[in-house]
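Checklist before submission:
- one chain only
- standard amino acids only
- sequence pasted in full

Submission:
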Amino acid sequence: VALNLAHSKGVEIARRFVARADIVVENFAGGVMKRMGLGYEELKRLKPDIIMLSSCMQGQTGPYATHPGFGFHLAALSGFYQITGWPDREPPYLGPYTDFIAPHFNVLAILAALDYRRRTGKGLYIDMSQYENGVHFLAPLVLDYVVNRRVAERVGNRYPCAAPHNAYRCHGEDRWCAIAVFTDEEWESLCGVIGNPAWTEYARFSNLQSRKENEEELDGLVEEWTINHSAEGVMSMLQA
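Returned file contents:
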């Protein structure tokens, strides 16, 4: 059912639905539902044990609560554009990233609210900020800034705790494979597949720190091997 909540009749129909509902979920900008007469206090008078969840951009309070927007706005605001892509290029378009994150938080919050109502007989209002949903996944980077004042930057396909870790060109037109090595044991296995086990004995590649310090050279050597094989062939050899 589609309702036009800009008209009083649409609001009245919505209120009738609420009187028979278990849960109300909305994602207007902060304060919009209340201005339409559909805020939690109003709905609670219609259905005392109603559960209401607001999944808005930046919650119901604070200086940006009333700002409307979409998922790609939040992907930028929460920092995902800052850390995605290559350091010498503009960030790529990520799309509405938080649109895929927020529903998982919403479902869990609603399940908890249903359990709370089962135990107490009371409804609940949940103010779920999609901005906070997104920042949650960047917690290590936030802590790194708070503690060490390090600002996370774009690093392409590389990763702080792995080397080699990149997408490597393979034989053929625009053919690539992704290789990620997290441990020295994995590095030894990769060198064995490549046919250069002696690489593990080089001081500049002997452990993760040294491989990170010489990552440009390392990536070049790995790609000298992958470029002579198909992407499917590289995958098969590494998974054998």
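Reviewer check: Residues 8-139 form a domain with the Rossmann fold fold (CATH 3.40.50.10540).
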